[in-house]
UniProtKB/TrEMBL annotation, chains A, B:
Phylogenetic classification of the source organism: Bacteria, Bacillati, Actinomycetota, Actinomycetes, Streptosporangiales
Gene3D superfamilies (UniProt xref): 3.30.300.30, N-terminal domain of ligase-like
Cited SUPFAM superfamilies: Acetyl-CoA synthetase-like
Protein name: AMP-binding protein
All residue ranges annotated as the AMP-dependent synthetase/ligase domain in the record: 12-357
InterPro entries referenced in this protein's UniProt entry, alphabetically: AMP-bd_C (IPR025110), AMP-bd_C_sf (IPR045851), AMP-dep_synth/lig_dom (IPR000873), ANL_N_sf (IPR042099), ATP-dep_AMP-bd_enzyme (IPR050237)
Location of the AMP-binding enzyme C-terminal domain: 407-477
Species this chain originates from: Nonomuraea marmarensis
Length: 499, 499
């Protein structure tokens, strides 16, 4: 156990090494690392007294809050598993999660759905209301020692990957989360003093991974319940925030909210976006922001599997692997496909998840070769960089040709009038499937379906061009990716040969 | 095994992800990552055919060479343990190492000592001469697959820590080495393209840790047999080196060698040193170089346990812990001492070694509390930063007072005439021990012993001032620290109460 380092251990070391550093800001709440450590210890003791033990689940049903980080750390201290659930979901979806995880404790913020769920809850779970009841719980625990928990134990569960209509909880150990944090510290060049604004949802790995990397370097996590452009500006100014969870239209919204220069956003060290934005902030020169921000990732690998910033000028727009993983592009028979050919993106290494909660068959299937099968298709370019092609289950078969939605989507999105686009396969009597594009145009754009098809034809082989185009106001999303189930249901898709 | 990542795995991934990147430069030898990977595979096969198996030892007796990295990676591929021995040692010292490790294979460069050792070698080890014989060995192996080796297996042995007159081989696993590399990547802000000049000895963790971090990020390792200022300049210029292994007088020597500006050293991104030096290079702004370079470390923790760069403006001059470890300052009874008090620096976490080779009693002793006991004394300052006090075994007891050599040494070294200094305890009839300073003055300095004692008295409590001062040309060193055994032998030290 001398090599073990859990999230709980990281917190304990910060309490020793950074006694005056602010760990958490959330409304009126400001906690130094020793204060956070003390609250987490009391909370862990209180949860243990309510029956939470090693391997048990604790669920959060609510918006962003410092309580999310406290519950995660208390679960790490106990060896329990914490799940921040997506509070935006329907009552039915949340009921599925509570049934699936059969948690020992649920901490909930009142809403129509959660109040109804709480009223129905019989079973063994303790339901604790966020706010006063939660504070009483924290206050009730003494400061005491806990037995060391191996860092290979799962400590975070994030729902993702709805392969068969229902999502699965990806289990992440302290070891995987800390390794992923290390990779973000490297690529984003995070330093002590880093202050992260948690304005994106903490039930999504995109925000959670930066929250945890900020914890790892002993920085400050600022929480706000949800995205509000004016409040984001206020918090960046007041807390000298280094980074927030912003992209695309969110950046435009923040820039617009600060059009008069009311707030000083110069502490924000972020990706270049527009002249107006770049004037307000400090443009970050770390590999994370230097080229286009991002890479390829999924919850099952702890966040990012590849980083664009590790492949400046590279051919593959997903970049190169995280320094703590290996990536192979495999054929269906498990052999590596040569550079230039499409196969499944497979991974192994320090940041990988521990499987899905209570899905032994699916777990065996996903790791059948000793590598994690992402379910996504990719291509190794001649320079070793990786291109993300699209979800394997959504490959479209038209005649003898394989067509990958992501490639057609990129071509569509390069059209100046297109705000967003997704591609599905619809049944075709002659070709098995045909490509259908669902497109959201920018305001005031007047492009026609024929224009778009012609645009794609100039960029890609003709058989990849859409045969059908539907216009919509917005593409439904699941996290960052199109919600293909919803698109299929709305636009007649289906019959994918890989599914 | 899906979470395992060995050094061999890292190399294999670079071969896939960086097919055109130069991994190694050594004289006329230039290898891309796929070329290095192929050579390592052939070498591993050849070693296996010579009987090297999981857990076996392979020793390098020679100067710096790309063969050192190849042998380490081949051992990682096989699950064997590689030891680059200190070739500067006497025949007796090298014989001790070869006897202690009982290696299955030795690769050696001819010198008086190694030739004599090789002639005596009976036993089971295969002796392969560096150069042609080594190249034949590499050429003899086929490209094949190897079974995966768990990254928790020891893969590198570095001799250190001569507690009882003979050194011990600290065993480091891939997991520990890769975690340490990750921490260096964070603090030094290393990026793809990083080029490290291995001009320091690879048998010492100080050079090896940067060699491995450079491997981790997919950079270029340049090897040179030993430190030669002019050759260092030439290589920095020719290979656009980002960092070399330089400090103190080595920097002065390099600056002097390039006084005429013959070589372009601007690619070197390094710590500020002198106006002349700063003009030649690019002053690095990463946390590693921003304040005074360094921190506290030892081979047993993979290199650096704490980093100054994680504690800018902090009170403790060893800085704050590596983000992947925990540090506690413990009393002899294993309890944590309060901030401000001296205790033993103890550590736990991802970068820690796996114990010393074949020293079960010592290993049990060093990890008796579930933490690694470094054998060094330290103090936690009120701001959470750590001060390194000195080796526990060398604490001087004068009357009732504990005196820590490092503190007195720092005071001596702050005198403008002092080039280097070390402090030992000599027997004293009245006080058990008395403080003796061994001092190397700068050229042309004319300071007297009384001057130096008075200087220390103005900085420290009077009982800490030296009662004896000896002048010498140079302080003998073991790595970066004074060789206290040699100093005691030469200057009458001994009778330490903690030893």
């Amino acid at each position: 156990m001398i090599h073990s380092l859990s999230l709980s251990d990281v917190l304990a070391d910060h309490a020793r090494s950074r006694p005056q550093v602010t760990a958490v800001v959330d409304g009126d709440v400001r906690l130094t690392y020793p204060e956070l450590d003390a609250r987490v210890t009391r909370l862990a003791d209180a949860l243990a007294r309510h029956g939470v033990s090693v391997g048990d689940r604790v669920v959060w049903l609510g918006q962003n809050s410092h309580a999310v980080l406290e519950l995660l750390l208390a679960c790490s201290r106990l060896g329990a598993i914490f799940c921040p659930a997506n509070w935006r979901q329907s009552e039915d979806e949340l009921r599925f999660i509570v049934t699936d995880l059969s948690p020992a404790a649920v901490v909930w913020e009142p809403s129509d759905t959660t109040t109804s769920l709480q009223a129905q809850s019989a079973g063994t779970a303790v339901w604790v209301q966020a706010g006063e009841d939660y504070e009483q719980l924290v206050a009730s625990g003494p400061i005491r020692e806990f037995p060391q928990v191996a860092d290979t134990e799962p400590t975070l569960a994030l729902y993702t990957a709805a392969f068969e209509g229902r999502p699965n909880a990806a289990l992440l150990s302290s070891s995987a989360l800390i390794a992923h944090s290390a990779s973000l510290l490297v690529v984003r060049q995070m330093e002590p003093g880093f202050t992260f604004l948690n304005n994106g949802p903490l039930f999504h790995v995109g925000t959670m991974m930066f929250c945890l990397a900020t914890l790892q370097i002993g920085g400050t996590n600022v929480f706000t319940p949800a995205f509000d452009p004016e409040e984001v500006c206020r918090l960046i100014d007041a807390e000298r925030v280094t980074q927030a969870f912003l992209f695309g239209q969110m950046i435009d919204a923040v820039a617009k909210a600060n059009a008069g220069g009311k707030y000083d956003l110069s502490s924000l060290s972020f990706v270049s976006h527009s002249a107006e934005w770049d004037d307000m902030i400090t443009v970050d020169d770390s590999p994370w922001c230097r080229s286009k921000m991002g890479g390829y990732g999924q919850t099952e690998v702890g966040g990012m599997l590849t980083f664009l910033g590790l492949a400046e000028g590279g051919a593959g727009f997903a970049g190169r692997p995280n320094p703590l993983v290996q990536v192979r592009i495999l054929a269906p028979d498990g052999t590596e496909v040569p550079a230039g050919e499409v196969g499944e993106i497979c991974a192994r290494g320090k940041t990988l998840f521990s499987g899905y909660f209570a899905r032994p068959d699916l777990n065996a299937e996903k790791s059948r070769t000793g590598w994690h099968h992402t379910g996504d298709l990719g291509r190794r370019e001649p320079d070793g960089t990786i291109t993300f092609i699209g979800p394997k289950l959504r490959m479209i078969k038209s005649g003898a040709e394989n067509i990958y939605p992501a490639e057609v989507e990129r071509a569509l999105k390069s059209h100046p009038s297109v705000a967003d686009a997704a591609v599905i396969g619809v049944p075709d009597p002659d070709w098995h499937q045909a490509v259908k594009a669902v497109v959201a145009l920018k305001p005031d754009a007047t492009t026609t379906a024929d224009d778009l098809v012609e645009h794609v034809r100039t960029l890609l082989a003709s058989y990849k061009k859409p045969r059908h185009v539907a216009f919509t106001d917005a593409i439904p999303k699941r996290g960052f990716t199109p919600d293909y189930d919803a698109l299929d249901a709305a636009h007649g898709g289906g019959n994918y040969p890989g599914a």
